[in-house]
Amino acid sequence: MAKATKKKKPTKSSKPSKPGKSAKPSKPKANGTVSAWEQDPGSKDKPDGGQLIQVPTPVLGQSPFSIAISNPPKAPNPTIYSPGTDEFRYWALAAALTRGKDFWGKQLPGVSWEVGNQLPVDMDHGEDLNAYYDRVGLRFFHGTAAGRTVFSCESPDVVCHEQGHAILDSIKPELWDAASLEVAAFHESFGDMSAILTGLQVQSLRSNVLAETGGNFFQASRLSRLAEQLGWAIRQSFPTAVEADCLRNAVNSFFYRDPQTLPSNAPATSLSSEPHSFSRVFTGAFYEGLAGMFKIAGTNESSLQQASLDMAKILTTAIKAADVVPGFYSQVAANMIDTANSQFATNGYAQALRSAFIRHGILSPSSSLAPVQNIARAAMANTTGTPRELPKLSLSITEFGLGIDSILVHSASDSARFNVAGAALSKGEVTAPGHQEEAKAFIEDLLRRGRLAVPNTKRDARSAMVVTRASAPEDHQTHTHELQKQGNDFVLKRVRIDCGFYCTSH
Amino acid sequence: MLKKIIPHDSLRACFNRRNLVNYNMASGEKKSLTHIEKTLKEKGFDVKKITPLTSEKMEVHANTLHPIQNNQTGEVNVPVPVRLTVSLDNKGGIKNIEGASPTPEAVRDAEHFVKTLVDNNQLGMPGQPSSSHQTHQIEINKQGQKVLTRKNFSAF
Q1: Which one, A19, A165, A342, B156, has least CB within 10 Å?
Q2: A274 close contact with B: CB closer than 8 A
Q3: Structural domain harbouring B23
Q4: How close A500 gets to chain B, by Cα (Å)?
Q5: More confident residue, B152 or A454
Q6: Are residues A47 and A146 in the same domain?
Q7: d(CA A331, CA A378)
Q8: Is the residue at B69 inside a domain?
Q9: Parallel, antiparallel, or unpaired: how do β-strands A452-453 and A481-486 relate?
């Protein structure tokens, strides 16, 4: 098990390091351990400040998922080295690779690399701010930004992301060359999910994340911020290409859009159909689902590890079962809920996952129960100026699985003053929904955002399907609407206007 | 006979392309599945997964090359996922293939995919050196067609 070491004041690690530079061990200790980064050399928007840990000397060559670092061809003596040296980088890379190899090896018995028996790894393939997996092996690079040389092989986030591509290629090789936006984006998301899940096998990281977030896992943290140092380096030249404090953040509020309606590229603050950008939708839902599963599993770091192990099983089972179609995200999501229902029926994980996928728009509330329907559109808005009670509309909501067949809602059923509709991103305009559809979309939106409280009904099992937010405070209520009983009917009523700044939770 | 091709107790089993010949089957059965894969390849399908449905039908997940028009690349053939229902004759050969054409949705997806690659400089042209950020390359196949080929998955 990895042990956290004291956070050292950056010394050599903060100075530019030339590729190929060699250094002697700073404090050689032949105790069978090496030093490595816990999660990333960088911290938030800084290129350094990452947590150093000591781990047992990595063993890469054993099956399953045997790995060989082919460049450099010879391993340095395994001992404690200072960051900034080639020797440190070698063992930091080996430690990250071992972390992923050990984790996925237990999760995927009998699976072997798509590239063959052993995955070759090139620690420094040349100059670039990048890393990639190319069905030959993993290749890492070095690049200079603001006078500092950054090596992508040092970051467990980057290493386990690339290794994640190789793992996914091993369990679902048909995704490799499918010309599909969601398939390509899912591959990127899996890389990030792999970095998160493998990171959670490090005890010190689990403890540090829980301490950093006060136990509320669905908050930005060192775990959710992926590849801070590489993000910093890219940001020096392309400030809008990456997020403000990392490469990508798994705690986000990105909501699913048909990628065909998105622009090809956009600043990191927006979604585009570019695979890395669009991957954040699935990763965000995954992370929120994991947060919900953790809430169920317990409150301490060992519960967090158990949730991560269960999530990995759910995820890989679902991926294997998912059809490769343009709507690949929803296929995986539906299969994840199905797997959670069948393999973790007593845990209640399915509800946590369902909430997360609905809140990120990957599944509609109805399709999350029976994944056959498409995702509904935007929420209803009341923009009329005169205060008055709007007419009530009876609405069937059976498909939402709340245990209530129909409700009364105050419908915005006035005639439109202007016959206009919002513009679609590709061409033309979106079709304005009818009143029933619009009201239903509003209910659905409340459900997605976890803002609808549903009373217990005689069918409690079904009303348990209400969507909850993993980040919702436990000491006060934040739902904005309730279904209130009036006579024989349930009526949708607003109970509060909540302007809380839940940055990532609406 | 077909029953020799597909083991009786594995009608619901899936055979991924990678383990078609590794599965614990009799050599004749392996040969037959490999023969079906080869025949489908000759018809332009890159087989990814075979799922026996009945003794006479199997579902095949495959990629097929489909021509896409793009302003920058011109016509380029891209691998588009298809789901085939393959009927077999009594000799284990292919009698009929349904679902051979990609769905319109899959074609639109592929068109946007190519456009996204072009717009993000992630697509290398034939004969040109590629950078690590170019995840795809257009290559010329034996038939002289321009084919979209993935080169890597990158971190950024």
Answers
A1: A342
A2: yes
A3: 2-150
A4: 34
A5: B152
A6: yes
A7: 22
A8: yes
A9: parallel
Write down the residue that tokens 């994991």 correspond to.
Answer: A290
**pLDDT tens track for A155-174:** 999 999 999 999 999 999 99
ipTM for the predicted complex:
0.82
Contact residues on chain A for B12, CB-CB shorter than 8 A: none
Judged by CB atoms closer than 8 Å, whether chains meet at A180 and B115 is answered as: no
Q: Looking at the complex, does the CB of residue A48 fall below 8 Å from at least one CB of chain B?
A: no
Residue B150: pLDDT band with limits 50, 70, 90: very high
**What's the mean pLDDT in A139-160?**
98
CB contact (8 A) between residue B119 and residue A128: no
Q: Give a yes or no: residue A243 inside a domain.
A: yes
Task: Give the A:B interface size as CB pairs under 8 Å.
Answer: 124
pLDDT band at A18 (very low <50, low <70, confident <90, very high): very low
pTM value? 0.79
Closest CA to A479 of A504, A445, A503: A445
Where in chain B does DSSP place strands (E)? 15-16, 45-52, 57-70, 74-88, 94-98, 123-124, 136-140, 146-150, 153-154
Determine which of A180, A234, A272 to mutate to test the interface with B (most B C-beta atoms within 10 Å): A180
Which pair of structure tokens corresponds to residue A151?
């090596």
Out of B79, B103, B133, closest to residue A178 by CB: B79
> Do B109 and A247 make contact, defined as CB atoms within 8 angstroms?
no
Amino acid at A122: D
- H or E segment to which residue A149 belongs: strand A148-151
pLDDT of the residue at A1: 45
Token code pair at residue A182: 């969601």
Whether A224 maps to a domain, the answer reads yes
Judgement on whether residues A132 and A213 belong to the same structural domain of the protein: yes
Q: Which of A3-12, A109-118, A321-330 is the least confident region?
A: A3-12
How many structural domains comprise chain A?
2
CB-nearest partner of A326 from B18, B109, B153? B109
Residue of A nearest to B134 (CA): A132
Q: CB B153 to CB A177 under 8 A?
A: no
Which residues of chain A have a CB within 8 Å of the CB of B113?
A: 179-181, 184
pLDDT in tens, A96-111: 999 999 999 999 999 9
- The parent domain of residue A66 ranges over 3-369
Chain A contact set for B20 (CB, 8 A): none
Give residue-wise pLDDT tens across range A333-381.
Answer: 999 999 999 999 999 999 999 999 999 999 988 777 654 333 323 222 2
